[in-house]
Amino acid sequence: FEGTATRAGVNMTTLYRRWGTKEALMLDAIRQRVSAKVPIPDTGSLREDLLTLVRSAIANVSTVEVNAMIRVGITLSPHESVVANVVETFWTDRLAVDAVIVERAIARGEIAPVDPEFVIEAVLGPPYFRLFVTRRPVTDDFLVATVDLVVNGLVPHQGTLTS
Fold first, then answer.
1. What CA–CA distance (Å, rounded) separates 97 from 40?
2. pLDDT tens digits along 124-143
3. Beta-carbon count within 10 A of 30 CB
């Protein structure tokens, strides 16, 4: 808190009064950043909304500071319950926010009812895997192919045989 208070030009008691813990401050800072850098799109199309979301999410996590923060979270979460709680709380909240994209598509009749968070995980998972596990490039073509794969799995196809 001390370093943050100094950089912000406020007294440490101000931070404690507002956030209570450094974890609460960290979670709020992460939420604010993501809300600003990864807004929830509303283009009227599931495919376009998911593409816009994944493009802005990957642009955000590809920055040096956010990439480092995620790597620290991945590394420390299994060993530090405080970090694990921040990571879990952030993703629980964020997936619920992102789910609006899928809920709108269901309401429009674009897709059948499905678990919205599962769809968001299916779209964000592959690029995150490339960034944080295999370190292979995450190109726009890859993002488009990932979104298309997910959307094509959700949209009913003409001429599909059903039993």
1. 8
2. 999 999 999 999 999 999 99
3. 20
